[in-house]
Every structure is written in structure tokens, then in C-alpha cells.
Amino acid sequence: MNETGPLILVIDDESAMRRFLRVSLESHGYRWVEADSGREGLAQAAQRNPDLVLLDLGLPDQDGLEVTSRLREWAKMPIIVISARGQEEDKVRALDAGADDYLTKPFGVNELLARIRVALRHAHGAAGPSAPSIEVGGLKLDLERREVFVDGREIHLTPIEYKLLTLLAKHAGKVLTHRQILKEVWGPNQSDHVHYVRVHMAELRKKIEQNPARPTWLVTEPGVGYRFRDRPAESAD
Amino acid sequence: MPALADHRPDPDELLKRVEAEEQRAKRGKLTVFFGAAPGVGKTYAMLEVARSEMEREKRDVVVGIVETHGRYETGALTLGLELLPRRKLSYRGVELEEFDLDTALARKPDVLLVDELAHTNAEGSRHAKRWQDVEELLDAGIDVFTTLNVQHVESLNDVIAKITGVIVRETVPDSILEQAAAIKLVDLPPEDLLERLREGKVYVSAQAQRAIENFFRKGNLIALRELALRHTAERVDAEMLAYRRAQGIEQTWATTEQILVAVSPSPYSARLVRAARRMATALHAKWFAVYVEPASARKLAPDAQTRLSQNLRLAEQLGGEVVTLSAENPSEELVRFAHEHNVSKIVIGKPLALRPWERLRGSFVDRMVRLTGDIDVFVTAGDPEDGEKVAEKAATAPIHVPSYVAALGATALSTGAAWFLFGRDQLADVVMVYLLGVVLVSARVGLVPSLVAALASVATFDFLFIPPYLTFAVADLRHGVTFGVMFFVAAVTSGLTQRVRNQAAAWREREARTAALYALSRELSGARDAEQVLRVAAEHLERVFESQVEFFLPTSAGRLLRVHASAGFADQGDRELSVAQWVFAHAEEAGLGTSTLPGGKVLYVPLMASGGIAGVLGLCPKDPARFTELEHRRQVDAFAAQLAMASERARLAEETERARREIEAEQLRSSLLSSVSHDLRTPLAVITGAAGTLVQNEPHVAEASRKELLQTILDEAERLNRLIRNLLDMTRLESGAVNVKKEWIPVDELVGAALGRMETRLAGRDIRVELAPDLPLVPCDAILVEQALFNLLDNAAKYGADPLEVRATPQQGEIMFEVADRGPGVPAGHETRIFDKFHRAGAEASAGGVGLGLAICRAIALAHGGRIWVHNREGGGAAFRFTLPIDGQPPPLAKSEETPSVRDSKP
């Protein structure tokens, strides 16, 4: 067992699921601790102070959403929620309540590891100074000069589009809900106008994506929000 | 009338008897203690029998109500018997005690004693008469002992009134006596009764003292005793006959005689009805009470209408079949009806005095005798009921002033015209002018103004044109003929006019009734469900009967629920509900104008459908008097029947629909089950096999095979996942758990998300996306539409060949999505069925899926108000298309966002 890898707390009531996660995490150098209920999960989180929490939304004793809020009362570690399809609203609520990302059952190991890596990177990166520029594939954001280039060609963006792009790019790999984006870009009072985000996102795609219907960077998470993809998808559906 | 040649009992007759016996077995038994006069000891005899029932047979005997009138011997007999408390009610400040029907029903003893069957209940009781209470007790299966004097028997009522000179208003219908399981005659010779009376052993109330003195004469008592004995004997006869029938002993198998009695609004008619009833009983015949409404006659005056209703109701109570006909000629119609129904005897009334024209043309009786041929006609004379002489009169119209003005004006005009045109020389022409005036006037006004016009014409003619002038004297007698002709013309013309007018009015009214009924039935036939039926019916009832309307329908537990009421019709609460409940239980009308609770404001009519009673209709009219009119009530009944039929039809339609849906659901379930059991097991079997191989033979499996097995597990798990997801989606869409949350979404986002999810599956495939520039935002549920696109892509990837094409094109008010491929296309004839659940276009089950993907697409498109279809493309392949409507405008974007950027964003 790797004694130095990040500690991951798995809260899930299904033992088969816990076993699968344990095997996958162990073999990739993570340390783990598990809990089969929300209450125990909260206790373990307080006791062991893990680097990341994998939380199943369908717990028998407590709503996953409640566990998320309780954790967020005192802890800043990334939380990735695991849910079934058809629970889009639960996901969005968990994300709005402070979860960092989500995984839809069933998911592959690669997808799981990618999400964990992104979450841990953002958790560590949040403390340090932000880079002056972001470069992913042909897309380059010069944050200091507020310039955007695709394949070396400068792209003219409106302030909203620029804010949108930088917000997503700073959280590269991580899902952002419509509400979170609205709050960050338009301010806290516009939370009902989700279609602002959609319309401007469509415009932004037209400007920077080669094929807006099959975007390279600005990926739609149906019913949830958007994700800036900084590397090829590990797994889709 | 043909006598029955066969001596076997008629099967229908037998069936009727069996049914009657079954009915009797469930019902309580009625024992009547029958006497000739008050004081013969009926109550005493009843109590004695009751005691022995209780002591010897150990039966549960309860006294419902017994009047001991303070007599010691009688009172002593009630000792030891349970006495029901009486219901106290106050009526106009007077405290009254009445028999408490509800307590008795709740107590439900074996035997209940209810004295004085003919008693009239105080107002505010459920039934007007005690015998109705007793009927309800019998229906509830309680045996009842009761007492009755012969003078209270309905069919003997008038005979006795004649003998004794005392009119008894409290009567009991004969049908109740016929139902009685036993009639016990309590007999006392008149001498002994008079003796008891002298000893003060007969209770006589103070008010009745004088009447009673007349009543208790020896002659009366002998006659009454004889009537009581005879009535009992008749019943014994009837029992004998019934026994014979039961045994099949057939000697006096009665030829089925039918008797008809002609009923009119006349107060004498009640007597006719009773006479017919006695005749029918004696002959064991069926009888009809027929009223023929003269088609052209004026409407009956309200009191005549009331009397007619009473007469008909009496006939109904006495067991006659009541028929109302309408004809121009009553006698002909009666005879026609008689022939049609094989009537052998007709009972009609003897007119008291003949009207002048009847002397001329022959009276009603003469005509009947002439027309009837082989039918016997019985002409019965009679006194009016209750000794009152009621003059028969048509409704008198109020004096119509303009008619008289017209009459006199016409006379003046005729006079002027005659004077100036012809003068005094041409008398013949003058007469013609006057005649013209009279004819013109009488064609327009009633009889009396016409005669006034005739009289005025004659008078002025005489005064101005006949010598000696300016006097009313007549020198030449020939002029008398002229006067006569003028009068006659006036009378005949106005008579004819009046007749035509009355006829027209009658037709109009009938037409209106029919039209109202037709309108109702037409609208009801368009009603889709029970609720709409009630709403439509309520509208019509409110309008036609000027009433407030309420409906009660039974719940599954059999309790009634007020489901609909006119605006402003306050819920009357439990009391009204209990009346409705009673109507529902007994399938009889109650309330306003009926014999049960006649004092109520609301008329309750049962809604009788073929499958039993469907509910209860309550009508609260603005003008309660109208509801006593026979025609009006018949109209109510007709409406109720229509309504009952319609609501039954609606109910049946709903049931059929439910059954159909259940069958469909059942079929779906079974095909789901068979499909699922196959499609779930296949991947499971593969996974289990592959994983098992790996676990058991791990060291011996070559690296390549190991990889292959693992890949198989992954693929099959993926397939299983798709399958379950589709099943869940379909179930959620079908159960309505999914509500479409529409938001304004850019099209490329929808397409992009679907393609994004398909990315691994579509890797290496040739995919062409064509999105029209400037596509509008689409109001839709992003998750659902993305799912639909995903399913279509999945379908195309599975069955089709490259290139796969995805298109979105704006159209008038909608946007069309298309997913097309170059595969084999859709087999002919499957273009619609391909969207059905569990439909697979060929034997490609191996391609995975349960045939739900396209069904889900259809459900999603329909849920958005769009369409979905497929067609084969030229050059091969299928193109699936669906549309989403674009309703309304997307909300505007805030202005600040439109500011151009680059200038201020650059340093």
C-alpha cells in the first residue's frame, strides 16, 4: 500500500461499488478509507481529513446533498458525487451546494481517475498564483493581455465571452453548472436567466471551435452545465 | 278474448310467482288486525298475539307505537314489552309525538307493533302516511303487526262514506292489504260494541264526538261489519285461487280481462276509479286508468290540474296502470286504446247534465256506446268526492281590453263605410259590410268580444238603418233573421279561430317540450365523460325547469355524494342527503309534490339506468306550484331518463376505455417481460461465462484471450447498461414521471451534446453535421431532446452505413431534426410500426437493444408537441426526422452584454 498517495474517502452503501473503487484506487497509488453511510462518512471525514471525497448520492440514511452541505460547513477538500442517470437535478443541486464534480453510474476507471486528478489539481492549484496564460492544443489565452488565439489567429471576444471562456478555462476539466457560471460572469442577481449562458456559449463556440456541433474544448454536460476539456475524453457514455 | 287452451301454468306467471315469493321471503311479514269499527278490540288482540309470539316463540317483539287511550286492560298487555321512544316534534307551536321510524329501523326487532295503519304523520315526517313507514319497515325485513278499520280501505272508502255519511280522509291503499301475510279479523257483534260504547270503553276524542254519534248507529255498524267480513272473505277467495294456481289445478283460469276507466279532472272521477278497481279485483283483471288530453282544448285551470293529478295518483295507488293520451277526439282515442290493449270493459262517468250541443250531437256516453262495438261500457254515476260541489270550469282568461276596443272599432268602421257607400236604401249591401266587419273581428279575437261585435253591429244596424230609424224597434220581422245570421257567423268564426289557436298553442307547448328534450339528448350524446354529462344536463335542467339542480352519485361504498350543484344552491346538509339516500335505496321519487316528504322544497328523482339506479337528481324550482302539473312532472321524468342513459353510457365508455388500457398495459407487460428476459440474460450469460473462465483458469488463459474476454465483459456490460437505461427512460416517459421542462436551447448545443456522448461509439465513423446558419433557439427539454438525438444516432450507427448525416433546418413555426444513414433502410410497411415499443425491423436482435430507442424518440417528440417519422432515401438508407414547435419568443438578453469588447478589453 502506498503510504504517501492522496487519501480518498469513499462513501457508498454498495459493498460491490466500494470494492471496485478500492481496487481501482489502490492500484493507482491512492490511499483510501471507506464508509457505508452518510453519518459514518461525516465522522470519517472529520477524523481522517481526506484529500478528496467520493460520495454516492443515493445513501440509505442521509441525502447525499445533505452530506455535501455538512462537509462544506468546515472542509474545503474536493467532493465528487456519484449518481445514476436521470438524477440531473440532484447532481446540479449537489454541485451548487459545493460538490466539485460528478460521475454518472456506470463509469469507467479512466473517467474516475481523470476526475480525481482534475479535482486534486484544482484543490492544490487554488492556493498558488495563477498562471499568466493558459494553452491547450491550438487555443491560447493570454490572461495578462486579455487576448485569445486559436491556432495563432487572434479572436475578438465580447467581455462576456471572454469572462466565460476564462472562467471555464481556469476550471479546466471540471464541470460548472449554469448557475455557477451565471453567478461568476453576470453577478449574483441574474440566477434565473440560464439562457444567457447558453446563448453566449453558442456564440463563443462559433468563434473558437472549428465545428461548434462537435466542440473540442467547450463541452456541454446535458442538464448540468459546461466543462472545459483540456485533454481528450477518457470515456463518454 | 281467447281462453287458454293449455292447462299448464304459464311459465311467465310461474316466474312471477317465484320472484314474488323470493321478494316476500326477504321482506318482513305484515299482519293486519282488521275490524269493522273503532272499539272492536283490534289493539287488544294485537297485543295478545304479540305477547304469545314473545313468550312462546321467543321472538324479539318491540312496540313501535300503540295507542292504549288510557284503557287499563290494553295498557296492562304492554307491560313487559319493549316500548320504542317516540319522536317529539313541534308543529306550529304544538308538541306532537310520532312513531320514530329511524329508531325502529336501527333497533331492527323481529316483530314491531305499529298501531293504526291509516294514521297520517305530522308534517315534517319522512312519509306522509304511516302505511309508508310500514312499507319501509317491511322492506328492511321487519315483521309488522298493525291494526286497520274497514272504512280506511281505499277501495271501500266511498261506499262507506255513503253508508255512514262520514267521510274518512285517512285511507290505506289496497295494495298494502294484499301484501299482508295474514289478515286477522277482529269481530264483535254490533250490540256488544254499542254496549262497550255506552260503558265508555271506546275511545272517542272530544272533537269527533258528534260525528261519532252518527257513526255508531246500529244500521251503520251492521253494514260495516258486513263489509269487513266480505272483504276478508274476498281475500280468502284470492288465497284459494293462488293456491290453485300454485298446484296447477286449473279450472277457473281467469280469462285475462282488461278494464279501462276514463279519468278526467272531474271530482267525480275518483269514484269511477274506485269502481273500476272493485270490478278489476272481482274479475282478477288488469286495469288501466286513461286520461285523454284533448289536443285543441285550452290548458287546464290549476285546480283542475291538481284534481287530475290526484285522480291519476289514486288510480296508481290502487294498482291501475296510468296512461295519458293526447287526441283531438277523446272518445275515439279511448276506443282505439281499448282495442289495442284487448280491453273488455270500459268504465265511464255519467254526465250530470247534458250541455246543449251534446243534446244535439250526442253526449260522450252516446259516442262511446256507439264506437265500442263488442266492448262492454259501464256508465257509473257518482257524487263528487268529499261532498263538495266543484263547478267545472276552464281557466278564465282575464278580460282583454284591446279585443273589445277592436270589436267596437270594427262596428264603428262598418257603420261609417255602410253609411257613406250605400246609405239606407241598399240594406242587403249594408248587411254584407257589417258581416264583413264581424268576420274580420272574430277571426282575431275571442268568443266574447266577437259576440260583442255582433251585438253592437246588430244594434247599430237596427238603430240607423232599419225603420223606424233611431229606435231599436223592428218593424219587419224578416230583419230578425238578419240579426240571427250575424250572431251565428260571429259565434262560429270565433269558435273556429279559438280552436285553431288553442291547437296551435298546445302544439307549440308540446313542440317546445320535445325540442327541449331533443336539445338535451343531442348535447348529451356529444358529452365525452360523466362529468360533462352532468354539466350539460344541469344547464338544461336549470333552464327548462327554472330550478336549481343538484346531483348525487354513489361512491363505491354505496353512500351518496353531492357531486354537482347549481351556483347558489346551498348544500342542505345531512337532512337532504338522507332524503336523497332514501330515494337511492328505494328507487322512488321523494320530496316536493310526491307522496314521500311532500313538504320539502326539493324534488328528488332517481336516475334509473338499465344497470340499476345510477344516482339521484335534485330539483329545487323557483315556482314549486308548477311541479304539481302532470305534464311538467312527466317532462322531469323524461329528462331524468335521458340523463340516466347518458351517464350510464359515459360510465360504460369509461369502463371500456379503462379495460382497453388495462389490456394494453397487460400486453405491454408480457411483451416487456419476454423481451427483457431474453435481452437481459444474453449479456449476463456472456459476462458470467467470460468472468468465470478468467477466475477459474487464470494462469492458463493466454494473454490475447484474456484481453478478448475482458473486452467482451466490458462490451456486454455496456450493452446491458444501454438496455436498462432505455427501459427506465421508457417507463418514466410512459408513467408521466417526466415533465417536459422547456428552456430556450441553441440547436448546436443539443446536437453537440448527443454527438459528445456518442464519441467513443462513433469513433472512426464518417459523420456529417449540417446545421443551418442562424438557427433559432428551441424551447425544449435539453435532456430529453438530446436523448432523442442520441437514440437516433445510436440507431443509425447500429443499422446504417456511413456516412451518417445530422441536420437541423428551421421551418414555419418549428425546427426539424434529421438523422440519416446509408444502410438498408426501413422495410416497407414498417414506417409507422418501427416507432412502436418492442418493434424490431428485422431479425437483428443480435444488434442489441429491446426495440425501445425509437419508441422513446417518439414519446419525446410527442411530449414536445412535435412529430416524428421516417422515410427511405433515394439511393438507399433511412432518414429519421422529428420536429419541435417553436412557440413564443425567447426572453431578451440584457443590453450590457451587447457592448463590443475588444477595444475596452485591451490595455
How does this structure look, described?
The complex is a heterodimer of chains A (237) and B (907). In chain A, 40% of the residues lie in helices and 22% in strands. Chain A is an alpha/beta fold and 237 residues long. The relative contact order of chain A is 0.10. Chain B is built from 27 helices and 25 strands. In chain B, helix 11 links the parallel strand 9 and strand 10. In chain B, helix 2 runs parallel beside helix 3, helix 17 packs parallel to helix 19 and helix 20 packs antiparallel against helix 22. The N terminus and C terminus of chain B are likely disordered. The chains are: A alpha/beta (237), B alpha/beta (907). Chains A and B meet through helix 6, helix 8 and strand 11 of A and helix 23, strand 19, helix 24, strand 20 and helix 25 of B.
How are the SSEs placed, and which strands pair?
The complex is a heterodimer of chains A (237) and B (907).
Chain A: E1 7-11, H1 15-27, E2 31-35, H2 38-48, E3 52-56, H3 64-72, E4 79-84, H4 88-96, E5 101-105, H5 109-125, E6 133-136, E7 139-142, E8 147-150, E9 153-155, H6 159-170, E10 175-177, H7 178-186, H8 194-208, E11 218-221, E12 225-228
Parallel strand pairs in A: 1-2, 1-3, 3-4, 4-5
Antiparallel strand pairs in A: 6-7, 7-8, 8-9, 10-12, 11-12
Helix pairs in contact in A: 2-3, 6-7, 6-8, 7-8
Chain B: H1 11-26, E1 30-35, H2 42-56, E2 61-65, H3 72-78, E3 82-83, E4 87-91, E5 94-98, H4 101-107, E6 111-114, H5 130-139, E7 143-149, H6 157-164, H7 174-179, E8 182-186, H8 190-198, H9 209-215, H10 218-247, E9 258-262, H11 269-283, E10 286-294, H12 302-317, E11 321-327, H13 330-340, E12 345-349, H14 356-361, H15 364-372, E13 376-380, H16 401-421, H17 427-442, H18 447-465, H19 478-526, H20 530-545, E14 547-554, E15 560-565, H21 574-586, E16 590-591, E17 603-609, E18 612-621, H22 630-697, H23 703-734, E19 743-745, H24 747-757, E20 767-771, E21 778-780, H25 782-799, E22 804-811, E23 814-820, H26 853-863, E24 868-872, E25 878-885, H27 902-905
Parallel strand pairs in B: 1-7, 1-8, 2-3, 2-6, 6-7, 9-10, 9-12, 10-11, 12-13, 20-22
Antiparallel strand pairs in B: 4-5, 14-15, 14-18, 16-17, 17-18, 19-21, 22-23, 23-25, 24-25
